[in-house]
Amino acid sequence: MGVQDQYRDYVMTGFVKRIEPVVVDHGEGAKLYDVDGKAYVDCFAGISVTNAGHHNGAILEAAKAQADKVVHACSYVYYVPVVGELAQKIAQITPGALQKTFFANSGAEANEGAMRLAKRYSGRREFLAIESSFHGRTYATLSITGNSGRKRGGGPYMPGVAFTPTPYCYRCPLGLERESCGLACAERVREVARLHLSGECCAFVAEPVMGEGGIIVPPDEYFTAVKKVLDDEGILFIADEVQSGFGRTGKMFAIEHYGVEPDIVTMAKGIADGWPLGAFTSRPEIADAFQVGDHLSTFGGNPVSCAASLANIEFMEQVDLPGQAAAKGDELMARFRDLMRDEPLIGEVRGKGLMIGIELVKDRESKAYATAEAGFVRNWCLEHGLLIGVGGNFGNVLRLQPPLVIGEAELDTVFTTVAEALVEARKGVAV
Ligand SMILES: Cc1ncc(COP(=O)(O)O)c(C=O)c1O
Q1: 213 alpha carbon – ligand 1 mean position (Å)
Q2: Of all protein residues, whose CA lies closest to atom 7 belonging to ligand 1?
Q3: What does the pLDDT read at residue 61?
Q4: Ligand 1: does its nearest atom lie under 6 Å from the Cβ of 108?
């Protein structure tokens, strides 16, 4: 029985339109190879995970060495050295006074735990989140996710959640222009907190660069303005860095671009270059609000994942991977912005570092969502040896999120293949 038949008969897949027709054999750097030996430039990194590249030697060695010692002991029942070492390292690389970390296994679990901690610390129970956000697939994280496509069939969701307008200048939900808007979307945070909730808001949860929503980059001053509102109202700020963390945007954490210090940072994905690990980190006085019995995870802080994560962070520091992502991303975005002169399908090119979104529109006047075209481009690229993602609430944003180690020639392949695919998409050629 082949793997595609096994998937059809034995794997639950009803929640995806399709599994991409690539049978993965192995990876190396920014490339994936299928079982027939065909190479693909991987411009999606397993949804923004393998930031330090596939098959990274130093990370593999660290994980193997740990596996040779112990794979699992339960890091919240016994002391495990690598867990302490990683927590200390995370305290060094996270912004400001963030210091104490809880280790989980995924992004959703990290956000869920951070929400629990915020409730414990503040004694309040309600949350603010942003429309078009995505925070995970568990009950609480779907409750703060502003995307009905992800929530369908799972409601009713948690009460005590209110949503603020997306800081999405290309399609401002308030119908304003950036030059004259006075950052009304940030000021709306105050009104929503006061008018939609009952005065019990414990935290505002936000992605510093919104991933699943279509690589939406808030205006530079947005988080400073929101933080002022949050401080005025006594509301904590949880920065969801699950997708934007670990060098992806050109800084170790994307919130550093804005000069704002969150109260809690959540992370996963790029934290261990592919080993499953999630985490949230906060200032000690917040972290210490947990009471006996409040929280734990059997697998959380798995020693092998933690060893991989520690080596991953050391690798990032040694080769300045965030700096590399910034330079490579700037160059790639500049090329796509130049292409806009000849390519009417592109409505906007945006992003930070190697977290890049190319929003496709039927025409720039109407900005009608070019959803079918985006799907076409993804399929055409796959046929031609390039893996990319598609996102946005209407599926019309191409997502370029390669391993940050991607080389110059591979970046050139990304540009030329996507550019060609856009031309083909305009011709309406079916793949
Ligand atoms: C910003 C953000 N938060 C949370 C999650 C959920 O992470 P996980 O799939 O590891 O649970 C994701 C996943 O895409 C994400 O992008």
Answers
A1: 12
A2: 107
A3: 98
A4: yes
Atom nearest to 108 CA in ligand 1: 11
The finding on whether 268 has its CB within 6 A of some atom of ligand 1 is yes
Instruction: Read off the pLDDT of residues 76-130 as tens digits, 9 standing for 90 and up.
Output: 999 999 999 999 999 999 999 999 999 999 999 999 999 999 999 999 999 999 9
Q: Which atom of ligand 1 is nearest to 244's Cα?
A: 1
Residue 431 has pLDDT above 50, yes or no: no
Q: Is the predicted pLDDT of residue 219 greater than 90, yes or no?
A: yes
* Contact present, 29 and 403 (Cβ < 8 Å): yes
Distance from C-alpha of 126 to C-alpha of 115, rounded to nearest angstrom: 10
SS3 at position 340? coil
Determine the average pLDDT of the residues in 181-189: 97
For 400, left (φ over 0), alpha (ψ -120 to 50), or beta? beta
Cβ of residue 107 lying under 6 Å from some atom of ligand 1: yes
Residue 225 three-state SS: helix
How many other CB atoms sit within 10 Å of the CB of residue 159? 9
Q: Is the pLDDT of residue 12 over 90?
A: yes
Q: Is the pLDDT of residue 429 over 90?
A: no
* Pair 266, 101: CB distance under 8 Å: no
212 lines ligand 1 (CB under 6 A): yes
Cβ of 242 below 6 Å from ligand 1: yes
Residue whose C-alpha is closest to residue 48's, from 320, 405, 374, 403: 403
**Residue from 111, 134, 141, 271 to probe ligand 1 pocket by mutation (most atoms less than 8 Å from CB):** 134
Under a CB-based contact definition with an 8 Å cutoff, are residues 161 and 129 in contact?
yes
Residue 56 dihedral angles phi and psi, to the nearest 5°: -75, 115
**Beta carbon of 250 within 6 Å of any ligand 1 atom:** no
User: How far is CA 260 from its chain centroid?
Assistant: 18
- CA–CA dist 287, 101 (Å, integer): 8
Distance CA 274, CA 165 (A): 33
Does residue 241's CB lie within 6 angstroms of at least one atom of ligand 1? no
Residue 430, pLDDT > 90, answer: no
Tell me what pLDDT residue 428 has: 80
The span from the first CA to the last CA of the chain, in angstroms, equals 27
Indicate whether residue 214 lines ligand 1 (CB < 6 A).
no
Across the chain, mean pLDDT equals 97
Examine the pLDDT at 68 and tell me if it is beyond 70.
Answer: yes
- Mean local confidence (pLDDT), 216-222: 98
